[in-house]
Amino acid sequence: MNKATAAIAIAVLASSGTAWAQIAERPVRLVLQITVDQLRGDLIDRYSAGYGKGGFQRLLDKGTFYVNAHHRHANTETVVGHATLATGTDPAVHGMVANVWLDRETGKLAYNVEDDDYPLLGEGGGVDASTEIDPTQKLATTQGRSPRAIRTSTIADEIALSIGPKAKVFGISIKDRGAITLAGHAGTAYWFSKSGAEMVTSTFYKDAYPEWVEAWNAKGVPASYAGKSWELLAQPDAYLFGNADDQEWEVDFPDYGRTFPHPYGKADGQYFTTLLTLSPAGDEIVLDFARDLMTSEKIGMDDVTDYLSISFSSTDYVGHFFGPSSLEAEDNLHRLDRTLAELLEFVDKTVGLDKTLIVLSADHGGSEAPGYLNSLGMGGSYFNFDDVDKTAGIAALKAEFGVAKELVDQFFQPYLYLNREEIAARGLDFAMVSRRVAEELRELPGIAYAVSSHDLRTGAVVQTPVTEAILANFNEDRSGDIYVVFEPHWFVGEFDGKSVTGSHGAPWSYDSHVPVIWMGPGIEHGRIARRVETVDVAPTIAAYLGVKYPSGTRGRVMTEITD
Question: How do the residues of the chain divide into helix, strand and coil, expressed in percent and rounded to 5?
Fold first, then answer.
């Protein structure tokens, strides 16, 4: 095994036993951390009419719902939010500043959990660039994966450290970054391979797959959806958006369409597994795997507290293609409600909900589709960086500096990268150039803020709520040359020839606002309106259990949960 089990054992010997005392007071045998990708904080209530009693409603009836929870970092992306929930600190500290960043040593964009030292376990489970629609995944140059880029411990790590080697720690998701961040360094992560139609891991975690994983993959759960379609749960008139099934701004993906039913196609179809993730089927597959994992690994079935993270990703894919105000988004959340109900019922039968601490949140929210906003008379549009060098302001700078080649090298959310070689060749001061480019960018329609990393580093930035969020995202080693914040409801709508309907990644409230719901022993029913932050989640889990806080923790304990 490649994990530092010896280090864990040493740390356990040094522990005080506080964890055992706390857990004895609250007999928790499982910490279940649920993260719903792109679940904006208002959507649970907005679509509640279609829920049953066993999913979201069960959590709301029995737990505490913080209705005003926010990420406080600017770049509200998947890996950033997951890592923040896991570590209790900002990307400035945990280091996961974006889904991709430029590696200064290699000059290449680095995918967040990419690690060539730990290749995928087995064959055929890597990213297929010919069918992968996630542009961040396609940028990875190797198939290896690990959590080593996370620079602090996670709550999963601290549970393993404090409770000891008997504690079982797992993270699972459709997305590798969703599983890996929350499993931490001490846990084991499994994620869905679209190229292999199976759940996979890397050699960081395992030398060989357990028999139960091989058995699950052999079942062919994804293939069971072949020839089927994503159909509405109810008649259209039961939905808020029942009369808006075909909206012109939605992505019309080949052979999937923008109206119900959405066919999955044949099991050997080019985009078959992609379409599964672009529907409630993705979450259902994760649930099926989770049940087998819990049974086979005997999660929560002894006197030691275990940790399981489940990240549901379909909401994100559906949001990108159809937007959060769509019939697809509404029905997907109703189906997720049923998936959650099955999960909670399974946990109740195997572990007992009376012995389980549950926290549900999201890695980020999501923007409305500009087309939908425009139909209501509101603003919003798409930004394209391809021609930024040709704008009057940047063109004038190039002429002033004597730069013949492109001054702007590339943009990848949220960072703009300058042509450093050309700037150096002209003997120009990089700090001055980056500041001047940022000033010109702020003049372009659709850009609200553009701040150079040099100014962030030196403190030459006027403090505002937005610049504070940008600073929370700033990491000396990984942040790009200029941080770009678009105007509300503006975003890059096309990359690598593929378009999206909705997106995320801004510090505005529709992207930062997420739910935080707690349920477990001693937790009272209620709704709390005061503002809390996602950095508060990990230290609250730690305080509830009586274990050490993650090493970079900057959040505050939610005392309603621990008192």
Answer: 40, 20, 45
Structure token digits, residue 417 = 């990268």
Site of tokens 């593929």: 498
Q: Which residues on neighbouring strands pair with residue 382, listed in sequence order? A: 491
Q: What's the Cα-to-Cα distance from 410 to each of 159, 197, 386, 448, 506, rounded to whole Å?
A: 41, 33, 8, 19, 19
Pairwise CA distance, residues 371 & 244, whole Å? 13
Handedness of CA 127, 129, 133, 138 (dihedral sign): positive
Report how far residue 243's alpha carbon sits from residue 255's, in angstroms, rounded to the nearest whole number.
22
Cis peptide before 414 (omega within 30 of 0): yes
What are the residue boundaries of the structural domains of the chain, listed by start? Answer: 5-84+119-234+270-372+509-562, 381-487
Q: Domain 381-487: which topology?
A: Gyrase A; domain 2 (3.30.1360)
The CATH architecture assigned to 5-84+119-234+270-372+509-562 reads: 3-Layer(aba) Sandwich (3.40)
Helix (H) or strand (E) holding 533: strand 532-533
Contact 185, 157 (CB under 8 A): yes
Q: What is the pLDDT along the chain (563 residues), one digit of tens a residue?
A: 444 333 333 233 333 344 444 544 558 999 999 999 999 999 999 999 999 999 999 999 999 999 999 999 999 999 999 999 999 999 999 999 999 999 877 888 899 999 999 999 988 788 888 888 888 888 888 899 999 999 999 999 999 999 999 999 999 999 999 999 999 999 999 999 999 999 999 999 999 999 999 999 999 999 999 999 999 999 999 999 999 999 999 999 999 999 999 999 999 999 999 999 999 999 999 999 999 999 999 999 999 999 999 999 999 999 999 999 999 999 999 999 999 999 999 999 999 999 999 999 999 999 999 999 999 999 999 999 988 999 999 999 999 999 989 999 989 999 999 999 999 999 999 999 999 999 999 999 999 999 999 999 999 999 999 999 999 999 999 999 999 999 999 999 876 666 899 999 999 999 999 999 999 999 999 999 999 999 999 999 999 999 999 999 999 999 999 99
Distance CA 105, CA 436 (A): 25
| Separation of alpha carbons 87 and 352, rounded Å | 27
Q: How far apart are CA 148 and CA 114, in angstroms?
A: 9
Q: For residue 183, give Cα distances in angstroms to 163, 201, 413, 439, 466.
A: 15, 12, 25, 41, 30
pTM for the whole structure: 0.94
Domains 5-84+119-234+270-372+509-562 and 381-487 share a fold: no
**Angular region, 17: left φ>0, alpha ψ -120 to 50, beta rest:** left
Residue 421: Cβ-neighbour burial (10 angstroms; 0-12, 13-18, 19+): exposed
